[in-house]
Amino acid sequence: LGGERWRLQFAGNQPSRWAMYEPGGLLAEQCLANMKVACVVGRTVFVHAGLTADHVRKYGGIEGMNSQVKDWILNSRHDEHNPEGTYRTVDEVVRSAQNRAQAISGNMPECLGGGNSGGTPSPVWMRDYSQPSDGPPKNPVAGTMMDECLEEISGRIVSAANGANGDGDANERGVRRMVMGHTPQRRINAALNGKAIRVDVGASSGVMGGTPEVLEIIHRGDGDEDVVNILTVGGERIPLADRQVLDVGIPIEQLL
User: Fold this and answer.
1) Residues in the chain with pLDDT < 70?
2) DSSP 95-158
3) How far is CA 42 from CA 61, 82, 142, 169, 222, in A?
4) Could you report the per-residue pLDDT of 12-55, keeping only the tens digit for each?
């Protein structure tokens, strides 16, 4: 499955994939409607590629992003391009799917990279915290971006807690780290003083056939620090601190 051959091999299933998973598709509600752009669990925010403070403010917080995407994925456009019509050739079926794809992409929420995003990297496309792979981010302001984002999310969490019961504490209720994928790494690792955890190991044979690993986060309570480990197929439990990528550019091999 080298190069682009695997993409070509499965392209013949494009119409059926669209019928299943396009907005309003046969399995869109069951499989996709409850998937999140981002979510917060304990002191950790999870997102496909990354978040910035601007994302959080512009799109109405994490809740706003998730709501916009859910509305989009449930909006059926089947009637516009008649995917169940009578087709004389396979090419006509493929063109129908492509036409629907074009129409749907034009209404894609900005937080997914559509609409009027102006080419600004979205939460599912950005690489500011994860590129280059296995090394410190090349963006010189990545650390500042991360700090501002975690502060913005934490402030919203604390404000919501204060509004609910008047008991909001930024140190206990805020987020301290961001877990992301999208940019394959040789192994799970952390950058920006442990705040950016990059977990995409490219395990699919269609990506790079990487070795699977699992991130383990143990929340021991509001008064204690979380325990963060990496679980390997060999049965090891490696503290995340042992997989830190230092900003001075030390290769990850020297940190293992």
Assistant:
1) 1-15, 77-87, 90, 93, 114-120, 164-172, 247-256
2) HHHHHHHHHHHHT--GGGT-TT-TT---TTT--TTT-STTS--SSTTHHHHHHHHHHHHHHHHH
3) 17, 45, 23, 13, 9
4) 666 677 778 888 888 889 999 999 999 999 999 999 999 999 99
